[in-house]
Here is the input.
Amino acid sequence: MFPKLSWMIACPIIYFVEIGSIALAAEDPFPYYPIDWNQDVLAWWSHHPYNPQASKPFEGPAQTEPQINVNEVRAKHPDSTTAGIEESLQMLPPTGGTLWFPKEGSPYILTKDLEKKINLTQLGGTVLILRRGNLNFISDGAEIRSRKIAFGFSSMEHADSGKLTNPVSNLYFKNLTFNGDRTASCAIIFNHVRNVLIDNCLFTNYTSAQEDLGKVNLGIIRAETKSEDIWLRKCEFDSGWGALFFRGVHGGGAVNCTFKLTVSVNLLTQDEALKYIDHQGSCQYIVIANSAFKGSMGTAVSMYGSSCLIIGNTAETCGEFVVFRAHWTPIVQNTQYTYYGNQIIDNTVNQANVFLKIEPSDSVSSQLCEVSNSTVRGNKVSSVADAVVLAPKVDSVIRAIEITHNSFTGKQVPKIRIVRLGVTDIRVNDNDFFGDPDEVLVLPEGESLPDGVVFEKNRINNVLKL
Here is the structure.
């Protein structure tokens, strides 16, 4: 993991990567912007080079040499089951390079059987790229079509030496369409990978069917096993069950993307990797910004995470816009995750059953789970039944949540619903609620307002209520 630093180096750096037993020096084409674990995620994002509003936003890495035309290579290998992709990769040196997919050669159809490997966790791909980084996959609009997982990337370091210290780095995708041919549910797997940028790609014709890895509904883009800095910009997902499936990813997210799926963003923990991770195995410093959630979906963002930022997005119709979850793991004795510092800011949702649900301890084996120190601010939500649902379960706590300067509109006045006790230091202030007159704050039957829950200076149909 990057060291704890509060400054950044935006220019390229020279570093050494280890591929197999060969140490290679290379110029890093990506900006170096480490996580400062003591920094608020909004402050961290405000200067991030992938933030379009940053003073010097990063446009994208240069196409590294050599450059291989995949269409020309395929023409020389008509029996290729990977449309010339594997043959093109074999032509690149260990230091990397660029694969060019001209649209005139589209579609690039992958028919090879899925290859599977284990690097702490199982991965697979029709094109499996192991122990290799510094690769660009660039096009002017070509389609890569595969009925199975198209690409799998991994350092294989855990399989080789039992470590997770030198991830595969620097993978760039631009202007490609990934087509699941109405059969695949996953397009790309990143296993122990760092510095990934996917620009202006379309993911289409994916399903929620059982995958060949024996797991279901994992998401079109899957990242795990101590993967870091996995970013997507201006990408579109128009089918399938889930778009992003991140397990324990530190740094990453989606900017200016479009989602049309059942569960668009799924952020989870990775219990298996805990002993290899400097910080907890929950997703941290993940940003979902300026993206559009279109159509009817179940949940826009479901997350087990800390210091994650959901900002400036729009949603049409969803059951739940954001769900915060929490659990502990029995895999590492007495390991308790903490979930704190999340922020939901300046989003616009047109219709939802629930805008935000906080639900720690969703497993019967969970204990001592806490969601805390999070902010809900400046959101505009219409046609919503419940503005916020606080639903702690046994042995869990929700505390230090600020809900402020939001606008909630419904047929009836939207609710702040406390399902059971186990909440403290909840501040609901300076919000606007609109709808047929009704109680805003709903408590468990027979219970009075818990100590530490403050409801003040809110307006209901433009009337101030203390």
